[in-house]
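From the pipeline queue, job 12 of 40. The input is one protein chain; the requested action is below.

Action: predict structure.
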Amino acid sequence: MTTWTSDELHRIGTADELEMAPLRRDGTLRGPVPIWVVRDGDDLYVRSYRGTDGAWWRTARQSHAGHIRSGGVERDVTFTEVTDEETNDRIDAAYRTKYGRYGGAYVNPMVASRSTTLRLEPR
């Protein structure tokens, strides 16, 4: 399994946004959409602001593959669904800490959509 380098973790983890382009069924990438990304230890996570209605999330969940760009890093990735409550609690806290300056109107939906948590794994 490929892992993130320390530099990649730092650059992506401190970037405000990540451009997400999930792989469609036909093998092409969806157009990239900007989303928030958080780091927990040596892992990177994303969630859908629109919950399970998010088009990018539905595509990512179906294909489990895509391409990301953030902080000057571009990588093909695998998406792994996260259902562990303890991990999701840490991701909730990471969203509140990193993006709290934007207020509850933006952060609360991210915390509420924990069922859409995906771990990004480099390929």
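Job complete. Strands lie at 18-22, 33-35, 37-40, 43-46, 65-70, 73-81, 118-122.
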